[in-house]
Design brief:
With about 140 residues, the chain is an alpha/beta fold. The protein has a single domain, classed as Response regulator (Rossmann fold, 3-Layer(aba) Sandwich), CATH 3.40.50. It is built from 6 helices and 5 strands.
């Protein structure tokens, strides 16, 4: 069974490490980056099913990541995360095609739930396991 391919981008390395571990428990194949330029280069090399990106970073922001993913991989689900819960940014991300938006701080289970919904829409079931059974596949 193919694994859900996830690119995770957060400029705080500890956040990326923590979320990569949480998503790996659900059977996802996760590549974590804390450098937006490196993540952009990787997006030129490989197609991902789900891209999770912080919005507020350095020179490259999450909305630019969203634009790049939407252009290159229209089928991919993009989930935006941010420590700056600004509704205008959330609205802008959703208008540009983001799948969902999560404000920090959030629990790993919150992200697993959103990723499980994205996987279900893509028709790629997550492997049963600790994270997948706890996150479940919910439809709002």
């Amino acid at each position: 069974m193919p694994k859900l391919q996830v690119l995770l981008l957060d400029d705080e390395p500890i956040v990326g490490k923590r979320l990569k571990l949480a998503l790996s428990k659900t059977g996802c194949e996760v590549e974590a980056y804390d450098d937006p330029a490196a993540a952009f280069r990787r997006l030129d090399e490989k197609e991902f099913d789900v891209v999770i990106s912080d919005i507020v970073m350095g020179e490259i922001d999450g909305l630019q990541v969203l634009d790049r993913v939407r252009q290159r991989f229209p089928r991919a689900k993009v989930i935006m995360i941010t420590g700056y819960a600004m509704m205008s940014m959330a609205r802008s991300a959703m208008e540009k095609g983001a799948f969902d938006f999560i404000a920090k701080p959030f629990k790993p289970d919150d992200l697993r739930t959103v990723v499980a919904r994205a996987a279900a829409e893509l028709g790629i079931p997550l492997d049963p396991g600790v994270g997948a059974t706890r996150a479940g596949v919910t439809h709002e």
